[in-house]
């Protein structure tokens, strides 16, 4: 029978192995993500479509495990319509048609869980796609490198907030943020995320050798928005996973879980960031 020392050694080796696996996957994946973000246009939109479809698939599985299943087809069709809406003709009419068709089918659905499908299908179809649509719209702002810079700034804000919140919580965390949803998250970690978000924005602002389309005075409220709503997206996914009794949304990404696990914060941060940037753009403050 292995001793406690052997068990500790084994656990340490497993953690080290998982860390190596995470790094070996994360570095090339991040490089690919940045490259496609730089290309922008149709390439970036296709990447958002692919990621969005995987997140929808993971959400469908979560709802099924929770006993509140979705329709098998309509989350994808709703999500596809949302994410393509800026580039397809008759987008509004197509969306209305999808909604009317879905409601008509569910009206005659006699299954016991049919009433659940009305809400879960629409939520699974719109939640992540709206986030990725807003991220795509940020990427399309301005001309030249403007959209790329703003997209990367938002990503660095989200990443910085997440990293600082983790280590801030580990170091200083005492007061639980949402104990019934995610017991390990603390208020101390949450507020540390504000520092991380501003740090991530500063990295892009001062180190990227590109023309900056936004004054730093507006980067500060943008980083606050990202650090506030990103963790809410994280908590929302945790709430869904807890109900579904799932540790990760899937195992498709080696050492990282699923796409929902990796983009949960961005899904909530992107819409508020887009609203803020769009207002600046329309009022002439953002000169792009």
Describe the structure.
This protein has 288 residues and is mainly alpha-helical. The protein has one domain (37-282). 75% of the residues lie in helices and 3% in strands. It has helices at residues 4-39, 41-65, 74-84, 91-107, 114-139, 146-172, 187-207, 216-244, 259-282; strands at residues 176-178, 182-186. It is globular. The model has no long low-confidence stretch (mean pLDDT 89).
Notable features of this structure?
globular, mainly alpha
- Order of helix and strand elements from N to C terminus: HHHHHHEEHHH
Spatial order of the strands forming the largest sheet: 1-2
First and last CA, distance: 67 Å
Extended strand count: 2
Rg for CA atoms? 20 Å
- What fraction, in percent, of the residue positions are helical? over 70%
Shape: globular
Largest sheet: 2 strands, antiparallel
Q: Helix/strand/pairing class, anyone?
A: mainly alpha
Describe the secondary-structure layout.
Layout: H1 4-39, H2 41-65, H3 74-84, H4 91-107, H5 114-139, H6 146-172, E1 176-178, E2 182-186, H7 187-207, H8 216-244, H9 259-282
Antiparallel strand pairs: 1-2
Helix pairs in contact: 1-2, 2-3, 2-5, 2-8, 3-4, 3-5, 5-6, 5-9, 6-7, 6-8, 6-9, 7-8, 8-9
Describe the structure concisely for a colleague.
The protein is an all-alpha fold and 288 residues long.
